[in-house]
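quick one, 182 residues, struct below
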Amino acid sequence: MTQHAPLVGVYPGTFDPITHGHTDIIHRATKVVDRMVVGVAENAGKSPLFSVQERVELVRREMESLDTNGADVEVHAFDNLLIHFVQEVGARVILRGLRAVSDFEYEFQMACMNTRMDPSVETVFLTASERQQFLSARFVKEIAALDGDISSFVSPNVAQAVLDRFQATTARESFAGRTARD
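---
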């Protein structure tokens, strides 16, 4: 019987902050891969609420209590092309979550570009669970910035981190001003 190399997948994102939708995709993706690398993108262009190091730590804490179906899960930051990160960690699969049809066009274009740069890497799309379909980190931040309850969208640990961040009035005003213009 032939031994196969472990299948390594990368689930990339900004994770600013990590939501129940993200952890749902990670949990379900670990049914498909032997080793999952959660890639936390630097992505300074999005003006993240948390630094990349803070986001990596939040994701790592979420992974401590997640059922990973026996797969090994690692969390790493990256600031280069996704396909280069995928190659660095020895992955053969990029896992992406789709919340709605509107996500598909962008994700499809990205998958095509990644395949063009490295045909040996496949992109696998997982549709969001019904409860998570319209959940986005951007909405979580907007709700928190306006003193809304985010407890059904993120874990208690993440909710506390977001609320702590918004305790500083300048952070709340800065974020609320950005979302109004975006």
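Residues 8-133 form a domain with the Rossmann fold fold (CATH 3.40.50.620).
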